[in-house]
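Weekly modeling sync, notes
Attendees: S.R. (lead), two postdocs, one rotation student

Agenda item 3: backlog of single-chain predictions. S.R. asked that every request posted to the team notebook include the full sequence so nobody has to chase files. The rotation student volunteered to paste the first one in as an example of the format we agreed on. Action items at the bottom.

Example entry:
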Amino acid sequence: MIKPEAVIFDMDGVLIDSEPIHYIIERELFTKLGLKVSHEIHATYLGTAGDYMYGDVKARFGLSQSIEELLEFDDLFRCDYFKRLDGIVLNEGVLNLIEELKLTGIKLAVATSSSVKLANVLLDRCGILPFFDAVVTTSEAGKSKPFPEVYLMAAQKIGVSPEHCLVFEDSPNGLSAGKNAGMFCVAVRTDHVNVAELQKADFLLDTFQGVNHDQIFQIYSDNYAVK
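Predicted structure, as returned to the notebook:
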């Protein structure tokens, strides 16, 4: 059986059931900025970093604030919002899977479009931050998903070649980033994305519930040769 040397997780939507909360937060942020962003336009920001979203919003609506000012406003609001929540929920099956993977000695990382501060808040509050050998954000990497930089930087930080990494993603932009990095990509199905938009994946997983590390290794091994 061919096994990956590292597993890299997207955070929002994959590890944590936070996408609906982010959507609500962004609607509130748009309102505070006096913007009427349609749900269709808003949907195109799924899986992207704040600089991409605010660059597009600024261009569309002619905002006077700089992207840096908008990002700072966003980060403060978002972190405060999550800190005040009673509970942040891991997706079912996630904790068991990362515990099993960690016990095998495989490298684990997170590659997220969230800010460094927010990623640490969320992962720490869920109790899973210590499992990861690296947490990399698109702001650190310099480019948003679908560009591959965040995944390439994660691989570099944990010392594993991209072709030996398995990625878990839930958005089209995230899948493009993983594939563009030359990694094996497993799409995790969610209610927020149409399955047809996940066809770039090497494998489609309905849920982490009941999935163990042996099954993940088997998926990688069975599909790696025809990647």
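Discussion: group reviewed the output briefly. DSSP finds ten helices and six strands in the chain.
Action items: rotation student to repeat for the remaining queue; S.R. to check formatting next week.
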